[in-house]
Amino acid sequence: MSKRLISTATALAVLSTPVAAFDLDAMSKAERDAFGKAVRGYLLENPEVIMEAVRVLEDRQAAETAQNDVAMVEAHKAALFDDGYSYVGGNPDGDVTIVEFVDYRCGFCRRAHDEVAELIASDRNIRIITKEFPILGPDSQASSEFAIAVKHVAGLDAYKRASDALIRLKAEMNEAAMRRLANTLSVDADAVLNAMKSDKVKAEIAQTRALAQSLQINGTPTFVFGDQLVRGYKSLAEMRQFVADAREDS
Question: How do residues 118-168 score in pLDDT, each as one tens digit?
Fold first, then answer.
């Protein structure tokens, strides 16, 4: 038998040996060197084994992350689903609740906006909660403060209209732009601008930031579908599958 075949056979035998029956420390230096060469030779001849091992590791890590996310959602479910201040839309009695952490200046949030709206319109048994999570600078902060101030001044319907407008707004969020938007929404611009400075508005954003930190959320959009934490943009088809999974698990 050739040395290469012997090396490969040795590696295969070792790799198939139970861990408890295999002790590197019991081997001599020469045996360890031979073993290392045999394993290296086997992997060079069968590089697909490395990729298979990487896939197994990634699957294990993904499963561990998913389990950790479920535990975090469970630990913070009151703040997620019933904080007393976040906007609640769709069907308030829906059998699946979706939470979205949104930044109005986030390109992927803007991309997801119409798809989320279509999801809610096509499935009348979803409850949707919006979490204001401005992380992309002063215009993001001002946009969230404006939306929350509109909610305090003019109510939930006006907030929803403000939110829909802000997700499409490309102009700088200066006072002139805010006044124009307030007038478009038929709300009192002075009242909204004054409310933006209030501790109540700033507290809502601060509480959501603290919640996001507890959930290890550092980007937008981030969703919660039932008890599943989903980071990043997802297509409409993917979101529908998450909803289906949440129904199945409930």
Answer: 999 999 999 999 999 999 999 999 999 999 999 999 999 999 999 999 999
In the predicted structure, residue 77 carries a pLDDT above the cut 90: yes
Q: Choose the final residue of a domain: 75, 98, 123.
A: 75
What is the H or E stretch that residue 209 is in? Answer: helix 199-214
Residues 6+ apart with CB under 8 A from 172: 139
**Of the candidates 152, 135, 155, the residue with the CA atom closest to the CA atom of residue 205:** 135
- Domains: count for the chain: 2
> What pLDDT is attached to residue 249?
84
CATH number at residue 149: 3.40.30.10
Q: Which residue, 111, 221, 89, 110, is CA-closest to 155?
A: 89
Burial 205-231 (b: 16+ CB within 10 A, else e): bebbbebbeebebebbbbbbbbbebbb
Query: Where residue 188 falls among pLDDT bands split at 50, 70, 90?
Result: very high
Q: What is the pTM of this model?
A: 0.75
Q: Based on the domain organization, do 43 and 121 belong to the same domain?
A: no
Q: How far apart are CA 100 and CA 216, in angstroms?
A: 14
Last residue of a domain, one of 48, 75, 102: 75
Report the number of secondary-structure helices (H) and strands (E) in the chain. 11, 5
User: d(Cα 22, Cα 34) in Å, to the nearest integer?
Assistant: 15
Whether residues 234 and 151 fall in one domain: yes
Instruction: Answer yes or no: do 230 and 119 share one domain.
Output: yes
Domain that includes residue 205, residue range = 77-249
